[in-house]
Each structure stands twice: as C-alpha cells, then as structure tokens.
Amino acid sequence: MRRASTLAFILRYVILGLAIAFVASLFAPGLVDRLRGNTPGPTTARPVEAGSSSRERGPVSYAEAVTRAAPAVVNIYANKMTTVRQYRIVPDPVTRRLFGAIAAGPSYKKQEQSLGSGVVFSADGYVLTNNHVINGADDIQVLLFDGRVAQARVIGADADTDLAVLKIDAADLPTIAVADRGDVNVGDVVLAIGNPFGVGKTVTMGIVSATGRQLRLSAYEDFIQTDAAINFGNSGGALVNALGELVGINTAVYRNAGGDGRQGAGQQNAEGIGFAIPVTTAKAVLDQIISHGMVIRGWFGAEYADPSALNPVRPPGTPIQRGVVVLEVLPGGPADRAGLRSGDILLKLDGEDIVDQADLRSHEAALAPGQVARLHGIRNGVPFSVALTLMQRPSNYAGT
C-alpha cells in the first residue's frame, strides 16, 4: 500500500513537470534551448526569402526624393505675339483659282502662350529647358518653387538636341542634384516632375523602359524611354531617380493618333510612352552654351546611314553589319577634301569600331573643329584609310 502511494506521488510530479515543459516550449522556446545548454547556431535562423533585401523591396515612399528634387523644378510660361490675318473664301471657283482667299479685314496681334518646365542647375540662375518650349518667345516668365516669378532671358539654344539655357536673376535658388555619371538601367524607378497642362507641379512615377532610343526627330538622340506619365507642360522638366537625382530632361511623348505618332511633350494627346534626354547630354550642352553661347561640334561634311537602311531585309542567320555607308559627300567639306565618296563603308574611327550611324555621329560631334581624325573603311571591296580635318558643324545645317 505504501509503495503504491509513493508511485502515485512520483507520477503526479512527472506529469506536472511534463505539463510545465510543454507550456514553456510553446511560449518560450528559447528558454528550453538555454536550459538544455543549446545555443542556436546560424543554421537555425529563418531563411531569407528571395528578393527580400531593402534594395529589391524598394522604399515605401518616394517623398524624400521628391522633397530633394522638386524645389529645383520650375514652371515656364513663354509668350509670343503672332500676326493673324482674316480671310474670306470666294464662292466663285474661277475667282478663287485666280486670286485665292481675299482679305476680309485688317490683321491683328494675338498672344500665344507655351507651357513648359525647367530645371535650375546653378544657384546663380541658369535654368535648362527644351528649345521648343521657348522658341520664338518674346517674353519668358519662370515660376519658382516658393511662388516668386522671375523674368528669364535666353542664353542660347540647341535645336539639334532640343535644349535651351535660360538665365534668371533671383536669390536663394535651390539646385538639382545630378546623378553620378547619369547611369540608368532598364527597370530603375524614375519620377517625372513638371507642370502638366498647367495644373501645377506634379510628380508621376514609372520605370526606365529602354535606353538609347532613336526617334529620328533630330541629329543627336539617345533617349531614355519611360512609362512615367509625361504630358503637355512637362517638357523641360526633371526625370529623377529614386534618390531624387537628375537622370534626364523630359522632352517628348509618343502618341498613336495617325501620322508618325511622334511629338514634343509641349503638345497634347500623349498616350504614356515618354522620352527624356540623358543628363550627360543635357549637362554637356548646358556647359557649352554657358561658355560659348552655342554648342560647338565637329563635322565631317558627309551624310551617312546604317547599312540596313539600304538593305532592310536581312536573310535569317546573317550577322548584323557594323559601320555606316556614306550617302552623300558635301562639296568642299572635310570628307570631300579627304577623298571620301558616296557608297564608301566606314568601319573604324581613330582605331575604334563604328557601331552604327548614331555612334559615329556622337563621336564626330565630340571631336573639336580642326582636329584630325582617321577613318578606315571599304570601297568596292578594297580596304582604305583616310585622314580628314574636321570643321565646325554649321549652326544652320539641316542635315542629320
């Protein structure tokens, strides 16, 4: 009898101990490990799920980036006076054919206003915007972040890149932070800051959709494509990265409404494919205009194109042909004096491979007038090499 009571006493405490251990394992598992003398090692840590780093997750908000960049983005109102004439269409077809439309009254002046945006690059008042925003304007007003309005004057413009530099006289100007090297990658988050439709400063978000886009709108193009909304009034505004650093100047949108579907961001009916000028290009143009009042570029005096332009149908499996083919040599120009001919295929410039016509045009422009360049190519199947002395590209040159 005494043995049975002793056994029952032991069992009660064993059961109580097991119950306490069970509860402890549920609510304090680390305590159980410490009591056992076990220290959790690295293998007991919870595995990190793929794509869970802070960079891959991205920030919850871009407010800090906007706070950093937005004060340096300004609204631009460019006004110009145009002469409007009133005409009356003559109903008689014979008279209409002889004299056309007949003036129906005196001409009158009409003021037109172009909306756009700009970016303050220096505290002393240099502002970069698009040329098409201020082209032909008689009066340019700049609305600053704090509500001040400043009169702007044009320092210089470059139609080849659609950029213009303005100067305003104002104190305490915030300036834009420029991204190091201006590098952007497809998939990077970007923010477009500007004044769409004149509603006021607006921020839209997207990603970099592509780089190095060519729209054939001008001679020098290397557009960043983005799906961040860029609309009427955004032209000249800032495209910034997630840190609020400038990576591009918003300049064009793409629409699908007939025609070739291309237009500047200063026009309406955009459909969401936007383009920006890379900040490296924009900064180079800004520096040249401030220094010289214009952009100075080297010039071969020849028109050229990708070989695919002459033979757009490429048989499957054939490699892409590098280099450019000369289409026209302008009389008296550097290429003409060096002996280049129409039909020549150019493969190297100063020992470096020529990728395509955009690559050659960029390197040509970067060379200084008076500099000697050596071109290697093929003429009628025979390799050749010429040295030519570059000229300054004429400011009124209409070629590409």
UniProtKB/TrEMBL annotation:
It comes from the Bacteria. InterPro entries: PDZ (IPR001478), PDZ_sf (IPR036034), Peptidase_S1_PA (IPR009003), Peptidase_S1C (IPR001940). One of its GO terms (biological process) is proteolysis. One of its GO terms (molecular function) is serine-type endopeptidase activity. Residues 317-354 form the PDZ domain. SUPFAM superfamilies: PDZ domain-like, Trypsin-like serine proteases. Keywords: Hydrolase, Membrane, Protease, Serine protease, Transmembrane, Transmembrane helix. The chain crosses the membrane at residues 7-28. Belongs to the peptidase S1C family. This is Serine protease DegS/serine protease DegQ.
